[in-house]
Amino acid sequence: KNAALDHVSYIEARFAPLLSTQEGLSTERILEAVLKGMEQGKTEFGIDYGVIVCAMRHESEGANRRMLKAAREFLGNGVCAADLAGNEAAFPMSLFMELFGEVRRLEMPFTIVLLTQTLPAFLCKIPIPKSPFTFLKQKTIFTIFFYCAVSFVISSTSTGMVFSTVSPCKI
């Protein structure tokens, strides 16, 4: 409702289905419930949406892989991308290269937020285009954000648009 009052026309909600699997709920059932709620919001307030599902750094690769495969079934029907969340210092990106290789094979767009302390090792393994719009020509939209203490980034995985307050980090 507040978003409609602010004239928002599109929202991407980011959440981790694995954090809601207690009491025997399956990832599929959780996704269905979230998408039903988002669809209700779209109907009532006219705001289109996408859901970004987060793999969790502290979860097993198997649990994350199963969640991502389940979410892939909803791609284009509410789910718009995958992400990785959690304690980056304790679980560096190098532990998730294979998992996100699988996400790419599933042809699922993904976004990864990196803190600057892990930047050099990760950049050695992933090619970064000169322009963020280069990714729009590929099947997989891949976005990397560099967080600084003074910057806040909002992105859209479906449109490839990136908005940033203050100035973005320089590499």
What does this 3D model show about the protein?
The protein is α/β, with parallel strands linked by helices and 171 residues long. The chain is built from five helices and seven strands. The protein has helices at 2-5, 27-45, 61-72, 97-105, 119-123, and strands at 10-15, 48-56, 79-85, 110-114, 142-146, 152-155, 162-165. A five-stranded parallel β-sheet has the order 1-2-3-4-5. Residues 116-171 have low confidence and may be disordered.
Layout of strands and helices, then pairs:
Blueprint: H1 2-5, E1 10-15, H2 27-45, E2 48-56, H3 61-72, E3 79-85, H4 97-105, E4 110-114, H5 119-123, E5 142-146, E6 152-155, E7 162-165
Parallel strand pairs: 1-2, 2-3, 3-4, 4-5
Antiparallel strand pairs: 6-7
Largest sheet: 5 strands, parallel
Number of helices: 5
User: How many β strands by DSSP?
Assistant: 7
Q: Which structural class matches the secondary elements? A: alpha/beta
Percent of residues in β-strands: 15-25%
What is the residue-mean pLDDT, rounded to a whole number? 74
Element-by-element helix/strand order? HEHEHEHEHEEE
Descriptive keywords:
171 residues; alpha/beta; five-stranded parallel β-sheet; 7 strands; 23% strand; globular
